[in-house]
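haha ok so turns out i had the wrong file open the whole time. this is the CORRECT one, sorry everyone. sequence first:
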Amino acid sequence: MEYAYQWEFYTQQIRDGKTDISEGTQRFFNDYFRTNSMELRCLPVFARGKNSIWDDLTQFVVFNAPHSWNNGSMPKEQFAETVTKYFGDISYIHKSSGNVEYHDGLYTASGMSLHGFYIYELKNLEKGQTPEGKESWKAQITGYYFQGRPWGRETMGTVRAVYGKIPCMIRYLEMIEQCQGLEE
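then structure:
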């Protein structure tokens, strides 16, 4: 899938290494994480050189696996593909967690849900290097949590206020208000 302002983000940040947050960068960030919000919402915490907490990693895989869960289950190979896609070559042992049961090479989700939604705002970007000399990026992100539906009456006033405070999101705010009329 291609997102609005994706090419601008690539040329400015990735190719040219700029750390300023342009309107296009903010819009790309907002569009991408509005569609893929579980990537940030369920992101496990990693300390350099250490594995994440197993429950956090399995929750991330449950909500971000590109494969469909067949009757609530996923083979360990597909689980491993998802881990590698997002986190590279980390070491772990296939086993159960608070989110999944593992038995005979199959992960089965054990009933969880994440209610509400987030609006994410990109606040700062920093470019640096890892101790190994590889390029690294650090982002400061603010997440605004809302209970309910993104277009629901109970959240619409607060959603308007948040989008009204994020530079460049006024146009998106107008689109939300147009959509609100469709749900009433």
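The chain has two domains: 6-34+115-183, 43-109.
again sry for the mixup
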